[in-house]
Amino acid sequence: MTPAPLFAIHPLATTNAVLNALSTVLLVAGWVAIARGDWRLHRAAMIAAFVTSAVFLGCYLTYHWLVGHVPFRGQGPVRLVYFAILISHILLAVFVPILALRMFFLASTHRWEAHRRLGRITMPIWLYVSVTGVVIYAMLYHLFPGA
User: Fold this and answer.
1) Count of C-beta atoms within a 10 Å radius of residue 100
2) Distance between CA 82 and CA 135 in Å, rounded?
C-alpha cells in the first residue's frame, strides 16, 4: 500500500496534524520549563499550547463540516488498534479543555499546590490526546489512505 500524495489530502487535515504536533512540542517545553523552575517559560508554553489546541478545534470542526466522515481503510488487527486509539483519543479529548481551563484558573488564583496536583493528571491526558491526534492522521491518510 502506497501513502496518499500530500496534495491529495485536504489541507485542513494536515493543518490539524501540524497543530497537534505543535501542541505536543509546546506541552513538553512547558513541562521541561517548570521542572527547571522557569515558571515564565512554563506559562508562555502552556498558554501557547492552549491557543494551539483551540485553533486545532476550530480547524477540526471546520474540516469535518466540509468533508464529513473519513472512513478508516485498514483491515485486520490494525483496524482494532486504530479504533482503540481513536476511541481513547476522543474520550480523553473531551476533558482536555475542561482540565486546561481549570489549570489556568488555579494558576491565576495562585493555588499552586492544587495546580500541581491537577497538572499531574492533566499533562499526560493532554499529551496523549495531542500525540494520538498525529498518529490517527498518519494511520488515516498515509498508512491506510482511502481510494
Assistant:
1) 19
2) 9
Is residue 13 within 8 A of residue 63, CB to CB? The reply is yes
Alpha-carbon radius of gyration of the chain: 17
What pTM, to 2 d.p., does this model score? 0.89
pLDDT in tens, 20-35: 999 999 999 999 999 9
**3-state secondary structure at position 49:** helix
How many other β-carbons are positioned within 10 Å of the β-carbon of residue 9? 19
Total count of residues recorded for the chain: 147
What interhelical angle do 96-108 and 39-67 show, nearest 10? 150
> pLDDT digit string (tens) for 52-107?
999 999 999 999 999 988 999 999 999 999 999 999 999 999 999 999 999 999 99
How many structural domains is the chain composed of? 1
Q: Is residue 49 part of a domain?
A: yes
Whether 1 maps to a domain, the answer reads no
Q: What is the pLDDT of residue 9?
A: 86
Instruction: Give the structural domain span for 21.
Output: 6-143
Average pLDDT score over residue span 123-136 = 97
Residues 6+ apart with CB under 8 A from 106: 112, 114, 115, 118
